[in-house]
Amino acid sequence: MAIIGSTQFLERIQFFNGERLFAADLQALEAFNREMRWLHNQSLHQAGVGSGYQVTGNVGDRQVTIFPGYALDSCGREIILTESQVLPIPPIADNGSGGSVFYDLTVSYPDNTELKTSETRDGICSPAGVVRLREEPIFCWVQLSDDPTNRQPMDLRLRNRIKEGLFILLAQVEIFNCQLKQPVSTTQRRNARPPGQTHVACGVQAGGTSWSGPVQVGSGTAGEIQGVTFFGSYYTLSVTTTSGNFRATPNYVARLVGSRQFSTAAAAGAVSTPFMADALTDIQQNPAPTPQSFTIQIFPFYASNGGTPQASDITNAVQAWSVGWMGVEG
């Protein structure tokens, strides 16, 4: 039963001392390792460019340069270029109507019959045979239709090979008068590594007496702006985010959770008066946030129609607040 693609069955090769080995035994060992590797690639990656395979060419050039790279096709086969290669562009003047002609440049996995022999060896009482083939990919220029809104390969067979992930798209060129009319474009290519999913996590941490402060800002004098009085001091709290299981430092946002309505502490012979308190929040960059924690700094302000809250009233209000946080790891 096939797992993926053409993998029908697998055999683990065993050896023993004194065994007489044949070429088929070693070929089977190589086939086992190759099939397992391809199965891994198919399962965990998608067809596309893994690394490298940069393609360059400027206006007026009659050739493009392809740099070393690594790609995978939909069968999980590795398409490897180890040395830079210069490839002539198709020698075409125009599309027959005086316009440019567009081509996709693709690369594909070569069969053994398409590879060059790099070493042969004499057999014992048998003819010489090939023992090494030079690994080189197959490049193909695929002509596109003239429809600017939907440029598709004109050859249906090649279109299907690209769609099925057997031909990997590297670049697109625009040719006029047998030369490049525009620099090579590589925006059409696909990465063999799927984009990582955004990881979002959130939580709430109680403040209470864990808030540190108040610490005066400047002179520490309260200042009033349009009926709202800023306390003139700030408080800080270290927020733990280990429950988010972040692997890298995310972008954090935070807010204060809790009531905004409070009352002043009533001294002997005095009456408690209500006031409203809130705070501006800031996530500190010194120390910088980490995947496990960040520090929030708040600047309280209040409004009251009656008496003036004291520092202890503001501290009591701050200690009643928790911090709700959210981290987004892209």
Number of strands: 22
Helix and strand pattern: HEEEEEEEEEEHEEEEEEEEEEEHE
Total of domains:
3
- CA(first)-CA(last) distance: 39 Å
Secondary-structure content class: mainly beta
Q: Supply the number of helical segments.
A: 3
Rg measurement, Å:
34 Å
Described by the principal axes of the CA atoms, the overall outline is elongated
Query: How would you sum up the major sheet?
Result: 7 strands, antiparallel
Low-confidence stretches: none
Helix residue percentage: 10-25%
Could you tell me the strand content as a percent range? 35-45%
- What is the average of the pLDDT values? 87
Task: From the structure above, extract its key features.
mainly beta; 330 residues; 3 helices; 3 domains; 38% strand; 22 strands; seven-stranded antiparallel β-sheet; four-stranded antiparallel β-sheet
Report on this structure.
The protein has 330 residues and is mainly beta. It has three domains: 1-44; 46-180, no CATH class; 199-329, no CATH class. Helices cover 12% and strands 38% of the residues. The chain contains three helices and 22 strands. The protein has helices at residues 23-44, 156-163, 311-319, and strands at 48-52, 55-56, 63-66, 69-72, 78-81, 85-88, 101-108, 116-121, 129-134, 138-143, 167-176, 179-180, 199-206, 212-216, 223-225, 228-230, 233-240, 251-257, 261-263, 274-283, 293-303, 322-329.
